[in-house]
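Review box. Two proteins, two foldings.
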Amino acid sequence: MYMKKSFTLIEILVVIVIVGIISAFIIVSMAGVSEKARIAKGQAFSSSLKNALLANLVSEWKFNGPTVAGSPVTIDDIKDSFGTKDCAISGVAPTIRSGSDCISGSCVDFDRENDGYLSCGNLGAMSSFTLNLWAKKNSAGDYNCFIEGATGWNSGFHFWANGNTIVSRVGNDATGIDVTSTYSFGTLWNNIVFVVDRHVTPARQKLYINTALVNSSDISSLVGDISLSAFKIGFSSGNSAPLNEYRGKIDEVRIYSESLPVSRVRENYYAGLNKLLVRGGILSMEYAERAAQLINNLGELD
């Protein structure tokens, strides 16, 4: 005689738990893939910048010195790998990280409680320039001052964030002009590009995050070059101590004495995508998606 067997409540609960565990692993795995893809896109963008502006590269700090991860930064870790502007440590030394904690090689981990930052000297005065760096905040809602090249509040440039409100500021000593945007940095690595472009009319400052142009502003009223003196990594005078210091990791900082050339960056980015496609690093569908994103991201804001 055939007897129809039904599942007991315990068996159903066990199945639900197993499905839940499997789903959690899938979600975590997909989140990791998404983060890697976003970093890869930012790395391609940074590489395209370097290819397009190599003749204008002024200084580059990779932080790939000899110090073991988890140890305090030494002067050998913060040398200018391209120019002559080796950094010095102001206050208590931040910490070296490496491997999966960083974008490439090693990086610097700042802790506001230590009151430490990197002082890299005077980079000179520039009519147009491009700053590119990677940053990862320790706390998503924290007040963070990433970087500056200035001797005063209305000079040079400053970049800071108060939670999801981000501000870049450029000035000529007499006047400072801000670009304010809303962007969720979270606690992930973000690629930041800050540009002063005097080749467009009107002249503009622009802020790109993860290849997207998040905002820009008219700076045609600023007469003369921008003085990038007293260049500091992990610090900005956007607020009083201790809020003028950064809390998180910074990697791959580069300064170019020219503005971001959109057409050349697009050309170099496509070349990088083509290489990835040929080597099997990305699929055709992802190639098409990235190309479409680039066209949208590099559009100019009026």
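Next protein.
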Amino acid sequence: MHSSYRALCSDFYINAKMNVRMELPTNREPVLDLFERARRSFPAMNAFRRYKDELALESAANATPHRWMAIRAASVRTGVVNPSNEEDMYSVHRLAAEVSPYYLSISPLDLEYIELLYGFDLAAKENHDEIAASALLSGSPMAALLENEDVKISDCQPMLGMNLLNEDGLEAHFEIKTRTNAKGTPAGSEPISVYLTLRKYDPVTDLTDLTGQLDELIERGQRLVDQYAVPNLLVPLRDEIVTRSY
């Protein structure tokens, strides 16, 4: 299904996070050794950046796909933007899960959760909140709230969180993020975003199982995206945006 994502949105991306309970080292040797290991696997990731709260290794902004890895005080994060195949979608996340615990001295006791986020950006020139309300609420009981001609929608950002019953410690969240200013127009060129976030708490007791846990999260996340996020969120939003552009 990943090959058709770009037909539904302007950009899509997959981010992963390993969150820890104790602060990670930020001194030169472990950080640079980890980034050098990542660069050997992905030579295009050759730009070392220092931001306010993180150290990052990135490929060029216009690279396809664009990959990055970042270290914050309590997390290791990775991301890929506009991957073209399944290998591109997940390879940098698997690398981080495989090697960063050893470079940064992360133990299973320290590992609080692993997280996977699927993000989809849809460019829209009209009022984002009106688009979201029309696309996602029409025909529902809440739609009656919008029939009053004396009201104007100022915020419509649905979010649904759930615990997956057959997976201890696994949460999933679907979220719509709109970006409309006080004048009712999009904030600059900011898109409407659709997010699916999966989070697994206390994922492993042995670090050798971490990549396997990530793969299980990937399998579950891919299924939720294709079966639920795409037909029930992305397609209605895309269709509403297209309709309003004529």
